[in-house]
Amino acid sequence: xxxxxxxxxxxxxxxxxxxxxxxxxxxxxxxxxxxxxxxxxxxxxxxxxxxxxxxxxxxxxxxxxxxxxxxxxxxxxxxxxxxxxxxxxxxxxxxxxxxxxxxxxxxxxxxxxxxxxxxxxxxxxxxxxxxxxxxxxxxxxxxxxxxxxxxxxxxxxxxxxxxxxxxxxxxxxxxxxxxxxxxxxxxxxxxxxxxxxxxxxxxxxxxxxxxxxxxxxxxxxxxxxxxxxxxxxxxxxxxxxxxxxxxxxxxxxxxxxxxxxxxxxxxxxxxxxxxxxxxxxxxxxxxxxxxxxxxxxxxxxxxxxxxxxxxxxxxxxxxxxxxxxxxxxxxxxxxxxxxxxxxxxxxxxxxxxxxxxxxxxxxxxxxxxxxxxxxxxxxxxxxxxxxxxxxxxxxxxxxxxxxxxxxxxxxxxxxxxxxxxxxxxxxxxxxxxxxxxxxxxxxxxxxxxxxxxxxxxxxxxxxxxxxxxxxxxxxxxxxxxxxxxxxxxxxxxxxxxxxxxxxxxxxxxxxxxxxxxxxxxxxxxxxxxxxxxxxxxxxxxxxxxxxxxxxxxxxxxxxxxxxxxxxxxxxxxxxxxxxxxxxxxxxxxxxxxxxxxxxxxxxxxxxxxxxxxxxxxxxxxxxxxxxxxxxxxxxxxxxxxxxxxxxxxxxxxxxxxxxxxxxxxxxxxxxxxxxxxxxxxxxxxxxxxxxxxxxxxxxxxxxxxxxxxxxxxxxxxxxxxxxxxxxxxxxxxxxxxxxxxxxxxxxxxxxxxxxxxxxxxxxxxxxxxxxxxxxxxxxxxxxxxxxxxxxxxxxxxxxxxxxxxxxxxxxxxxxxxxxxxxxxxxxx
Length: 828
Prior knowledge:
Elements: H1 6-20, H2 24-39, E1 43-45, E2 55-60, H3 64-75, H4 94-98, E3 107-112, E4 116-124, E5 131-141, E6 153-155, H5 165-174, H6 185-195, E7 199-204, E8 209-215, E9 218-224, E10 227-228, H7 229-237, E11 243-247, H8 261-280, H9 288-305, H10 315-356, H11 360-373, H12 378-408, H13 415-429, H14 436-444, H15 446-460, H16 466-479, H17 486-514, H18 517-530, H19 537-560, H20 567-580, H21 587-614, H22 621-634, H23 638-702, E12 707-709, E13 714-717, E14 723-725, H24 729-733, H25 739-748, H26 762-769, E15 782-791, E16 794-801, E17 811-814, E18 824-825
Antiparallel strand pairs: 1-2, 2-5, 3-4, 4-5, 5-6, 7-8, 7-11, 8-9, 9-10, 12-13, 13-14, 14-18, 15-16, 16-17
């Protein structure tokens, strides 16, 4: 956006203000939106279409939806979102035509104002991809005589520079203005608003002066001549060549201006422009009074000179000289007249401002400034008279104020001291004042004045209610215990007390019947408070002592009721009772209850010790159970006996549970030991059998080729083809077996990973031990065969001996005898 300076810029600003200040809040919000967008890290301002003054920037990498949220803060919901199609009613909208039609993904925002329409558009760019153009502007309502791009709206007459509207107006107002320390009036007001400062400004020009009052950064009031408030503020701000004097803040709370500073600036600009236009129409820069004074002689001069014949040739010269003289005299006279008028008007303005000023010191300062700024003339003397009058009126008002304050304190406590302090305030401010002597006399008679006032209250309370009478009597006695009217006041008190005492006697009888002793105590306290110096006071104190004693007994019973629940708290309450009322009739009963509380507290401490012992995990559980059971049997207090019984039962249950747990642990430990022993025994047995098998395999290898070792624990007889167990049952089990035991042994046998073992026949056993080469491994004396039969009362089984021989005899054994078995299986 191009920069402008000088008159063109001022004209542009004035045009802007004319259209936008109808809705200042919208204008502020619009500028704030632009500032927010400018602060975005990915936002780059993009200037194109310079004939139209609006804001345009390009965002890189930020989605349209996020930018829509930023614009919604000012515009509200969009008329069209980026993901939605263009509504039919917007196709003919003039702004859409100005924005070059509907663009894919475009978002549109509108906000109407009194003078036009703020608009905003978000337009995704295809090249480079991922960028979004942000276009903001203002279209005012269509005006006559100007061509608009679309019906009803004009676009392009309002610029939105980077600086805010306040800054632009301040810049214009400061042009040509006088400055102190390089700060103009408008800039000072803006800085005061930003910093929330408070002050008073005296602003003067060559011809005018006025005051601006600022509180917490807000311009709240102004005064200038007869004008005040907003009119005075706009007048002062519109001045040029100003001098600014910063003064202390003036205590003003009312905001008579009640509008934003921007609107005040706008009015000031219009006022300055209007004044400039009026001054530009004048032909001669001469005060009007001087022009009139100079014009009158010039009209009369030529008429007189026509009567002088014979001097026609010199008359023009004399006429010119005369005209010059008359014009000079008229100019001098006119200038003096103009100066007089100006002085008179300045005094009138200053006098009106001083009269309107609520603060007398401020008004005096204004008049003194007027006197110092001008000559010692009639108006300076009038200003001096005004100052004297203002000071006299201020002194009178101050004197009336302190008299009213003293009057309000007449019947209050400490009247003399407070009143003297109030009067001293006057003497400090006006030690030689018109009322100083009167004030000193009043200070000397303060005591007499206060007593007289209070006694008048006593006399005046004759027809008042008893409470009001008592209050008046007491105030007098308290303030003036040795006063001149004390005896009269005491008589009045006794007269009123007699009636109240008779009522109190009746109340005491009622309290004795009902037991409501607190009522009687309160009534006695009320009587003593009201009639403490009456002749009935002693009798009432006796009444109160009796009522309080009975009330104390009730209180002691109530306190003792808490002994069972919290004896420590009850003991503390009883001790506090005895400290407060050691002479009470209930003191003896309180002592008894206190002793009971001590017993209960000792019992509680003893139970705490027993309970702590019972829960001490470092002690044996059985010892703890015995200690708690013993305490439960001895304690006289049911509460602790029951608690001890519950704790003992809890501990006994734990003791039984621990016993069961120990037994289970012992049984589990024994089971693990047995398993380990069995594992060790089985391992030893395996080692023994493996050793026997190795010995047998060595013997087989040495015996020739008939017997061949097979799978673990087996061998094959190549002669018969049968598979035998390398070790017999005697070697394997290390003990002999009955026939049935041998049969069961063979059925369960799994040597060599075979499970089809059986008892051998007599012939099969004979092939091993009765046919050479004989089986070389050590054997049991004889072996069971599969041949079994019954004879008489016995069951017999055929057996074969392990003797290595070629001839053998048939041999039988009872089934119950103890022998061995060598298992055999058929080859598969």
